[in-house]
Input
Amino acid sequence: MQHKAIFTIDVEDWFHAGVMQPYLKRQNGSPMHRLTDNLKWLSDFLAKHEGKATFFALSSLTPVVLRQLASLAAQGHEIASHGHTHTNLNQLSSAALQAELLQSRSILEQATAAPVIGFRAPNFSITDQALELLQETGYAYDSSLNNVRLHKGYGRLQQHALHPKPYLIREGLWEMPLSTYPLASWNLPVAGGAFLRHLPFALFQQAALKLASQGYYHFYLHPWEVDLAHPRVPGMRLLDQMRHYRNISKVPQRLDVLAQKLVFGSISEELSRQKVNQRPG
Output
């Protein structure tokens, strides 16, 4: 029996990655766009495995990419918001954040002719204030909690508890967290992204299958992480090179293994299931 897994994709180009910003500022000219080809690869991959996904997209992407998102929505995938400018939420004022949430949702809905009800903060930089504004601006869920101590840049909530599975933050607003695997006194980061590339795959796969068998496993990646022709930026520190580029060549094969053992689905599908289960008998 194949268990289900939520598969989410942060739709941004390689040059949006935070580690790239200091180096690209030193370069002349505009960086090469790679997102169109990478989204095509992911679309074909999901079609091959009869899977679905949630695509958390920036709304400031090119018209070509916005048309790709419309095609993905027509294929039954979910389109959700990753913001407009890819700015960490703790760097935005309340007014700027509200404007960004409204702008992103409006552009994506116009481009795809589909409702946009979900949000993921850039670099998982969620804040308590942002959760309040999400509901005010018409979102039904957040998916920004990635409870990993190893990454200091991830958002830390002060007024809301963290849970490893979907839960109601308040009536009308759900949290759909990224998955971690409890190991001794800490959480093993098995939600994909860099950890799909950096962790020993046997360990990653074992934890992923275990969580899926328990009813909830949620992982993600970026389109540039399947790009075997990813541009190289000169002058990067060795640690930054390793963080960004290490094991990209192995991601397509690792994804293929997971797709053969798990059924990939979107957050909206899982949210509908959660709502049904929450109804009184």
Summary: Residues 3-278 form a domain with the TIM Barrel fold (CATH 3.20.20.370).
